[in-house]
Amino acid sequence: MAFQIYNVGGASEILLLDPRVGDDISIAFLTDLHLSPGPERAGPRYSGAVEWWDQVFGRPVGMVQRLLDEIARVGVDLVVFGGDNLDFFDAEVAAQVREMCTQRQLRPCFVFGNHDFEAT
Fold it and tell me: How far is Cα 32 from Cα 87, in angstroms, rounded to an integer?
């Protein structure tokens, strides 16, 4: 079983040997995306933070679409969203993330963080 870890500095590889795993499996792990419907729907508690996040990252949902396109091109077996996928709970944004995976024929698995359940 081999892992590639991508970060700002490039890619590195970790090899793990486990006799229980017969075939290679590839997993993309995404975490702390903090996606939101935008500052206009964030409410007073989150609007400032969401506006800052959108300015710094240029509306992260667009970046996630490009990232999922790349993951689909590579052909991973499973995409694990590791928590704080949303900046605060918004049903439309949650459905959009799932739909982006469906459109690309990706198999997502969601682990939830505290932000995924917070309400405005």
Answer: 8
Q: What is the distance of C-alpha 3 from the center of its chain?
A: 18
- CA separation for the pair 53, 35 (Å, rounded): 9
Count CB neighbours of 10 within 10 A.
Answer: 7
C-alpha–C-alpha distance, residues 34 and 43, integer Å: 15
Contacts of 116 (CB under 8 A, 6+ apart): 83, 84, 85, 86, 89, 94
**How many Cβ atoms are within 10 Å of 117's Cβ, its own excluded?**
10
Q: How far is it, in rounded angstroms, from Cα 79 to Cα 32?
A: 14
- pTM for this model (two decimals): 0.72
| pLDDT single digits (tens) 37-90 | 777 777 787 788 878 877 877 776 778 888 899 999 988 899 999 888 887 788
**If DSSP codes are grouped into helix, strand and coil, which group holds residue 29?**
strand
Token pair of 73 as six digits: 């091109």
